[in-house]
Design brief:
- The chain is an all-beta fold.
- It has strands at about 5-10, 15-20, 25-30, 35-40, 55, 60-65, 70, 90, 90-95, 100.
- It has one domain: Rieske Iron-sulfur Protein (3-layer Sandwich).
- It contains no helices and 10 strands.
- The strands form 3 sheets. The chain has a 4-stranded antiparallel beta sheet, with no helix packed on it.
Length: about 100
């Protein structure tokens, strides 16, 4: 399986999300310490960007800013209403000072 560089680790402050584009689709890239997580950046309920919402570092969730739905950054599962459908999860990792994503 091949991978490609997304950005540098220093480009994303700890505990924050940043939107990147992968194959023309928005992806929310989240840093929790030296761990990176990535999910589709569109809420399955209201079609707004999750990367604009709050990240909970301890629970590893991201909250949709519009209606408050929580999504697991590890599984993509919608954890609270009004969202009921999960978001896609992407395989990302650090490689030295780089953040890389696995090809699908």
């Amino acid at each position: 399986m091949s991978s490609f560089r997304i950005c540098g680790l220093a480009d994303i402050p700890d505990g924050t999300a940043r939107q990147i584009e992968v194959d023309g689709a928005p992806v929310a890239l989240v840093r929790i310490g030296d761990r990176m997580l990535a999910v589709a950046d569109t809420c399955t309920h209201a079609e707004v960007f999750l990367s604009d919402g709050d990240v909970d570092v301890e629970d590893r969730t991201i909250e949709c800013w519009k209606h408050g739905s929580l999504f697991s950054l590890e599984t993509g599962e919608a954890l609270t209403l009004p969202a009921t459908q999960p978001v896609e999860v992407f395989a990302v990792r650090t490689d030295g000072d780089d953040i890389v994503m696995e090809e699908r």
